[in-house]
Write a structure and sequence with these properties.
The structure holds 2 protein chains of 2 kinds.
Chain A (H helix, E strand, L loop, with lengths): L7 H9 L5 H19 L2 E4 L1 H12 L11 E5 L26 H8 L3 E6 L33 H8 L5 E6 L5 H7 L2 E4 L19 E6 L2 H11 L18 H5 L6 E4 L1 H5 L4 H16 L3 E4 L8 H16 L18 H12 L2 H14 L5 H21 L5 E5 L15 H6 L5 H6 L3 E9 L2 E8 L5 H15 L11
Parallel strand pairs in A: 2-3, 2-4, 7-8, 7-9
Antiparallel strand pairs in A: 1-3, 4-6, 5-6, 5-10, 9-11, 10-11
Chain B lengths: L4 H11 L5 H18 L34 H5 L5 E2 L2 E2 L13
Antiparallel strand pairs in B: 1-2
Helix pairs in contact in B: 1-2
């Protein structure tokens, strides 16, 4: 048994029993990356020397908590002092962060071993990882298909067992949609549950960091390590982080699961519709109570999202000006030209599109019509969820309208690409925690289903997900051909 | 809302980006299509609804004002494309367009 194929919990048991060492796990992950990554292109930087040194250092100490000695990968939008922090952009190709993101520090303190960084859509803008300036990542289930995005490198890496877990970021579904496309678990915590310090901002009111894992239990282990108050992020919530152990063991019996049937019925492909019906049957059979709910404004979420997210992005990305960060256009004669040429040369098409759209919705004369209106509808969306959670404990819906699509299939039409986020975006707009777990494989590609919970409802979210995971018995990819 | 070529040029100027003519026309069409889609929001009644500025409502989060270590000047300037003697070095921008008196 190659230990890289195991979950965090299983690797941890072997480590604490002394059957394997942290260095064994690091070597196994590095060998796996060497064997599979040339094809996948999910990992863009490998920290072999540093990871080995860290593993040796850990081995000299007594075993620690659940993440002690576990190799992991960081999406390249998270600041790490190791290596570069590129955000998938040419503009930051040589950027070396002078500090670690809070989540990176916390995992370091927990004894986890950072072994590399993963590919992503530039500045986390995209749903396929085709927008990376460093080339796309392939879906390990089918190399002709995208892994989803924007955390596609992270989810492909975990699906292919390059590491037991990765951290991704989710602004409109960027953890959950690629997790579904790659057949793994992806968790977006409540807005503010995890510090964003050291996360290069895309849309500050929507961004959250979360785990990409093989199991729901592992997602809980990682969340417990990274969540909680941080003096470096004033939007990070002060509420204590509860233990998730009891919730993981509670099961589905008696759980009230809301089903927004009208919303879900719109635009699901046949395989996804059939799969979702089977999930509802499984929930009912396991003792959950299904409750019909209405999310009246859910169909408006994509439109609201592409106003709010692009507005925030246009402001956040104004810091990349050719003065402070790595790349400056050569030959620009004055400051205005430095700004314009550095940005024009440094940003890819999708980033430019979103900056221009965000600039438009914030510009004089349009602010009320677009941005302010969108923020008001966002209030209505939050109220819809508050009403729904009065009659149910969690809400379920598919993660994406269908399985992973082919390369190039949606790049010509940005709106078509945006619509693939229809079921994930509402959680970000309302700040809710949400999780995607794999359900089954149809025509060689995995499908996923989500749960949403009320703010800070991570325990009940994990309870529902663990309960469904247990009855579905999804068989993970298990790629062969590597040591 | 109709997006014209002039609108896209104006946005480029505001955002400090420059598109060439074919890219500008492509961008114009894409922005038009996205804004047409977004127009569905006009059908929603928002009378008396306050905007969301923060999804998890909390107010005046305070902490003790204690001095903490911060990054050194060298660490911050380490990524600058051009720095000198502890400062960012930029092209001259004062007086460059003024005619000599």
């Amino acid at each position: 048994m190659n230990p890289v194929t195991l979950s965090i919990a299983e690797q941890g048991r072997l480590l604490r029993a002394g059957e394997i060492s942290p260095l064994d796990l690091v070597e196994a992950s590095l060998a796996r990356i060497a064997a599979l990554n040339p094809q996948l292109h999910s990992v863009t930087q490998v920290f072999a020397g540093e990871a080995r040194a860290r593993a040796r250092q850990l081995a000299a100490q007594p075993p620690g908590g659940p993440l002690w000695g576990i190799p992991w990968l960081a999406k390249d939008v998270l600041a790490t002092r190791l290596g570069r922090t590129t955000c998938g952009s040419k503009l930051l190709e040589d950027f070396r962060s002078p500090y670690d993101a809070t989540v990176v520090e916390r995992l370091e303190q927990a004894g986890a071993v950072l072994i590399g960084k993963t590919n992503m859509d530039e500045f986390a803008m995209g749903s396929s990882t085709e927008n990376s300036a460093f080339g796309p990542t392939r879906n390990p289930w089918n190399p002709d298909c995208v892994p989803g995005g924007s955390s596609g490198g992270a989810t492909a890496a975990v699906a292919a067992d390059l590491a037991a877990f990765a951290l991704g970021t989710d602004t409109g579904g960027s953890i959950r949609q690629p997790a579904a496309f790659c057949g793994i678990v992806g968790l977006k915590p409540t807005y503010g549950r995890v510090s964003r310090s050291g996360l290069v901002a895309f849309a500050s009111s929507l961004d959250q960091i979360g785990p990409c894992t093989k199991t729901v239990e592992d997602a809980a282990l990682v969340l417990a390590a990274i969540a909680g108050e941080d003096r470096r992020d004033s939007t990070c919530l002060r509420q204590p982080v509860p233990s998730f152990d009891a919730a993981l063991a509670a099961g589905l019996r008696g759980l009230r699961v809301g089903v927004p049937r009208d919303f879900v019925a719109r635009g699901l492909d046949p395989a996804a519709a059939e799969d979702f019906a089977a999930v509802l049957d499984a929930l009912r059979a396991a003792g959950a109570t299904l409750v019909d709910i209405t999310l009246q404004r859910a169909p408006a979420c994509i439109a609201v999202y592409y106003i709010v997210a692009t507005a925030e992005a246009s402001a956040n990305l104004s810091r990349f000006d050719g003065i402070r960060y790595t790349r400056r256009a050569a030959g620009a004669r004055d400051v205005a030209a430095v700004y314009e040429q550095s940005r024009t040369q440094g940003f890819g098409d999708e980033v430019k599109r979103r900056i221009l759209l965000g600039t438009y919705v914030l510009s004089s004369g349009y602010y009320d019509a677009y941005y302010l209106r969108a923020q008001k509808i966002r209030t209505l969306i939050r109220r819809d969820f508050e009403q729904a959670f009065a009659v149910c404990d969690v809400i379920t819906m598919p993660t994406a309208p269908g399985p992973a699509f082919k390369f190039g299939e949606r790049t010509a039409d940005p709106l078509q690409m945006y619509l693939s986020d229809v079921f994930t975006v509402p959680a970000n707009l309302a700040g809710l925690p949400a999780i995607s777990i794999p359900t089954r494989v149809a025509a060689g590609l995995p499908l996923g289903v989500q749960f949403y919970a009320p703010p800070l409802g991570e325990p009940v979210l994990l309870r529902a997900a663990r309960g469904l995971e247990t009855v579905l018995e999804f068989e993970r990819l298990g790629l062969r051909g590597a040591a | 809302m109709e997006i014209t070529e002039g609108d896209v040029r104006h946005l480029e100027a505001l955002a400090a980006l420059r598109l060439d003519a074919p890219a500008r026309e492509r961008m114009r069409g894409q922005l038009q299509r996205i804004l047409d889609y977004v127009d569905q929001l006009n059908a929603i009644d928002i009378t008396g609804v306050p905007p969301t500025y923060h999804v998890i409502e909390s107010s005046n989060v305070l902490r003790p004002d204690e001095v903490q270590p911060s990054l050194s000047n060298d660490a911050v300037l380490g990524n600058a494309p051009d720095a000198q003697r502890g400062f960012y070095r930029v092209p001259r921008f004062v007086g460059e367009t003024e005619e000599p008196a």
